[in-house]
Structures
1.
Amino acid sequence: MPAVQITGIGAIAPSQVVTNDDLASVVATSDEWIASRTGIRQRHILRPDESLLDLAVQAAQEALVRAGRSALDIDLLILATSTPEDLFGSATRLQKELGAVRAVGMDLTAACSGFVFAVATGSQFIRTGTFKTVLIVAADGLSRWTNWEDRTTCILFGDGAGAVVLEAGETEGILGFELRSDGSGVHQLTIESQRQAVDLPSSFAVARSQYQHIYMNGREVYRFAVEAVPDLIEKTLAIHNVVPSAVKGYFLHQANQRILDAVANRLRIPKESIASNIARYGNTSSASVPLILEEWVKADRLQPGELFVMAGFGAGLSWGVILARWGRI
C-alpha cells in the first residue's frame, strides 16, 4: 500500500484582534481573570463582512504552494468544520473557489477533533490507492455562535483556518492514529438546534429549527480532556514503540493552557514540547492544530523526518491522536 506524507501546510486567522481588555468592556471579566484560568490573552474574530470560506481558501492556497501543487492536483478535498456557511456543507464551495475541478469535495463534522479526524480519513483514501493527493482544510468561526453575554464561554473562542496536503509516497509520514467517541458526554459541549412549531392552515404539523449559542460545561470538559487525551497519546505511542521523549513536538487542540500543561506532566516531558499559541488565538476549534503546527514549520522548529503528534478533543465527546513524521523524506 502507498505511504502517506504531509507535504504542505497553511494557516490563517482574521486580522481583527479582540483582547481580554476589549471583552472586559462587554462582560464582567478582566485580563487577569481570563489569563489565569485559560492562558488566553487575545483571539482573532471575523468581522461581520468577512467570510469563513475566504479564510479556508487562503489556508488551502498556502498549503498547496508549500507542497508545490496546484488545485488541479487535488483528488479529494475534506473540509473539517462545525460552522459551515451553508447547512448543506461548504466543501464544494471551497472546491469551486480554489478551482479544484478534479477533486471530490466533502464536509466532515467532528468539532474540535475535526482536523485530526479529517487527516485520518484522508490518509485512508491514499493508503487504499483510491486517491493520490488529498487536501485537508479545517476552518471554524465559533465567534458567530457565541453568546457575548456569557462570560464563561465568550472569553474562549476565536476564528481561524488551517490546511495540509497529504500525498502518496514511498516513506511513511502518517505512522498511525487512534480515534475515539463517547456519546454519553454529548450534552457537555453543544450548539443545539431548538424546534419551534410553525402555524400553518393545514391538517399536518411542522416545526422550524434554529441553532442556539455555544453551551459548555467547562469543568466536565476539562476533566475529560486531562484524562482521555494523555491516555490515548500514551497508547498510540506504545503501539508504535515510541517513547514520549522521542517526539519533537506535540500539537494539541488549543482549548486551555492548563490542559496542555497537564498533558506534559502526565507524559513526563518538558512543557516546551507541547506547542502552544493559545495566548494569541484562543480556542479556534478544528483550526487550532494546523494553526500551531504551521507556526513551528514556518519557524523551522520541525524538520523533515522528525516525529510529531497531533491530538484533537472536544464536543461529541470525541478525541483522536495521530503519530507522524514531518514532510517529504
2.
Amino acid sequence: MTTAVRLAEKPPTRRFPVRRVLCVLPLLLVAVVAVQHRSVLAEGFGHLATARWPWLLAAAGATCLTWVAAACTRQGAVVERLPRRRLLATQFAAGAANHLLPTGLGASAVNLRFMTVCGLPLARSSAALALYLLAESVGRVALLGALLMAFPGTLRLGALLPEGAVGPLLVVAGAVPAVAAGVLALVPRLRAAVASFLRTALGEARSVHGRPARALALWGGALAFPALQASALVLVGRSLGLPVPTAHMAVAYLAATVAVALVPTPGGIGSVEAALVVALVAAGGPAAVATAVVLAFRLLTVWLPLLPGALTLAALVRMRVI
C-alpha cells in the first residue's frame, strides 16, 4: 500500500522541450547571421535610402509573388490538394530556413515536413520534393536559354569564368556521375533503395502530369519563380540608375544563380553577391553602381523578409503545421 502511494506521488518525468527549442532556433540563427553580415546590412540600407521608391515598391511586389509561384510549384508536384494558406505560409517560412542553412536544405526540410504532416507518406513526399527541385532547375535553365537565344551576346562567359576554369569544370561534371555509378554498383542495398525511390518518383510524375491543372501549376510556377526573381533585380537596378539593359540584367541574374547553385553556403550568402556583381559588370555596368544594386537587391529579397520569415517558421512549428 505504501509503495503504491509513493508511486502515485512521484512527479511526472519532464521531457526535453524539443519543440520549444525549434521555435527559438530560427530567431537565434537570424541574429547570428545578421551580426556576421552587419557591415553588408548597413551598406545595403544606405543604398536603399538613395533609391527611387516606386521601383523599389515594384521590386518588393515581385519578391512577394515569388512565394506564390513557389506555392504553385509545390502544389503542382503532388496530386492531393494541399491547404492553400498553410502552403503559402510554409513557402514564406521555407525562404527564411533556406537562408539559414546550406542552400536548398532548409526549404527542403520544411516542405518535406509539411507534406508528411498533411498525410503524404515519406516516400511520396520525397518524390514530390525531387520533382519540384527538378522543375525549378529546368525552369531556370530554360528561361536563361530562351533569353540567350532572344538576346544573343548578352552574356560574356570570358568575363565570368576564370581563365582555364572550363577544363576542370568539365572534369568535375564527368567525374560526379561516374563516382555515383560506381558507388551504386558496389553497394546493392543503396542501389535497391535508389531504384525504389526512382520508381516512386516516376509514378508521382506520371500521376501529376495526368492532371493538366497540376502540370500547369508545376511548370508555370517553375518558370514564374526565376522570372520574378530576375524582375526584382531589374527593378532594383532601375531604382538605382544602373545603365544596363533590362535583358542583360535578367540574363546576368539567371547566369549568376545557376553558377552558384552548387555552392554549399546558406542561401548563397556571399557567393551570390560576388557572382551578381561580376555578372553585372560583365554586362557593362559600373562596378560601384553594380555593387550598390546587388547589396540593395539582396537586402530587399533576403534580409528584410528574414526576421518575419523566421517568426512564421517558429509559429508553424508551434502550431504543428511542420
